Amino acid sequence: MGKLVKQIVKTIKVDLDKCNGCRACEIACAAFHAKPRYSSFNPARSRIRMVIDERNDEWVAIRSTDYTKAGCDGRRVYTINGKEYSECSFCGSVCPTRDLFIEPDSGLPLKCDMCEDEKVPLCVQICSRDALTYEEKEVEVEELVKPAEIEIGLQSLVDKYGLQKLSDTFVRMSQKI
Length: 177
Ligand code: SF4
Ligand code: SF4
Known about the structure:
The protein is built from 4 helices and 6 strands; from the N terminus they run βαββββαβαα. It has 177 residues and is an alpha+beta fold. The chain folds into 2 domains: 141 residues, Alpha-Beta Plaits; 31 residues, no CATH class. The strands form 3 sheets. Strands 1-6 form a two-stranded antiparallel ribbon. The protein has a two-stranded antiparallel ribbon with strand order 2-3. Strands 4-5 form a two-stranded antiparallel ribbon. Strand 4 and strand 5 form a beta hairpin. Bound molecules: iron/sulfur cluster (2 copies).
């Protein structure tokens, strides 16, 4: 077992009964992460997305987590207060079986970063229904070396195009600089 270190775990609780699917959280997240900041409002670039099934009266805000190169083989279905939710309704993985959390221009995965140094994440600030609640707690965990964001992005490109094609592209691009 590796060295134990103290870590602040940040979470956002979602109250399914309060959310009305207004999608303000998507817009706030997309705007906060636009470059320059607040220069665009495209929900496709948001790290929080609404899963909406109006016939089933289902409104779920999910935040993106890690990139994964394969989707699940089987899916669970949850029944909560008489409504059926698919497992994908609660899953934040950036996976190839749906188009959520893929940056539309670059095709790179988008992961929630808890709005970096903001005291309260933007999606929580904007939600007028108090459907999102931000919480922090200190826990002891095994020390892990996390891959940098650029490494995760490059890995997803390698999975999609193959290493050879990617390295040929880098060589071609470097010759133009
Ligand atoms: S801002 Fe709040 S109420 Fe609106 S979609 Fe997001 S979580 Fe739901
Ligand atoms: S915490 Fe920040 S980065 Fe994460 S979904 Fe909310 S607004 Fe987006």
